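Figure 2 data, in text form.
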Amino acid sequence: MLQTLQTGTVTIRQAAPSDTEALVALLHDSFRTSWEPVVTPDAAKAYWESDRAARYVVEMGSEFRVAVSGDAVAGMVHWRDDFVHALHVLSAWRRRGIATRLMDEAEARIGEAGYPAVRLETDTFNQASQALYRSRGYREADRYPDTEWASGLTTLLLRKPL
């Protein structure tokens, strides 16, 4: 169930086990609004039947940073080493600076760890994410078929020097 977010201060903190339900709901919201409209019906069905969001949160959630308003999760970012694996913002909270705050956190921590650059992937259909990353100085380093969804999509590898 998606939580109602307060309109006050948003803070960034380490994810906690108590965030699990909200994080799964956030990933479902992101899939529903960004990916489901462009993947094949079979790929969408596979997503919903696989419980992949819950598995991802259970397996990797301790590495997430979350943006919260009160007790409600508005977004999350996950990186390992120099690679940002995921950035998601609840659709009701998009275009309010949450993604920027989460990326600021990831880039700062990656830089503090001594990496000279940040890498991440997005798909060519996702114009909103590309605009965000371009505005932050990311540039295309490669492109290749997106094998995750078997939907004929193209993945962009983006890189930003720190």
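Caption note: The mean pLDDT is 92.
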